[in-house]
Amino acid sequence: MAEVSDAELLTRFRGGDDSALEALFERHETPLFYFLLGILRDTHQAEDALQETFVRALERLDGVDPDHLRGWLFTVAYHQAMLLKRRGVPQQRLAVRPDGGQTDGPADPLPGPLAQAEREDDAQRLRQLLEQLPPAQREVIRQRVYEGKKFREIAETLNCPLNTALARMHEGLKRLRLLWGDHHA
Q1: Does domain 1-88 have CATH number 1.10.1740.10?
Q2: pLDDT along the chain (185 residues), means of 10
Q3: For 124-185, which CATH class?
Q4: Beta partners for 102?
Q5: Domain ranges of the chain
Q6: Residue partners of 10: CB distance under 8 A and separation at least 6
């Protein structure tokens, strides 16, 4: 698919052709990685930023102008690199008072009992909704979210291409959003 344009591949992907997504990611993976490596100067951070770039891309591909995909991917990659750089500098969080003002001290890291109960309820609902996903999508999400694995590790574990793992994550998250919306409707 090397002779096929990004715009055509994106159109094919939007039409349901997952191999088109794999071709897009394979085409842009190496240049994006070296771009990120140039910014971050660390192989592991560049790999992390690349994976997050692809995740963000999957979340937003529906709204991308096909004729500007390459530039858009590099913009997303740049923002991911900057996020990683900022995370490297610990920042003190400020506590927020009930009236909306801030205190000078650090934020209370423990949520109140009501917030904790709501989180636990949402987590239980999410686990139930995950069970409704196809096994391949559920496994990628489980390994990424619950085990904290990188997409390369997930792909190796599942014996599939990196882009397939990314596509499964994308489709699984889309289905979860729909299920979550149906559940709350």
Answers
A1: yes
A2: 82 83 86 90 87 85 85 92 78 42 50 73 81 92 82 90 85 84 65
A3: mainly alpha
A4: 96
A5: 1-88, 124-185
A6: 20, 24, 61, 64, 66, 69
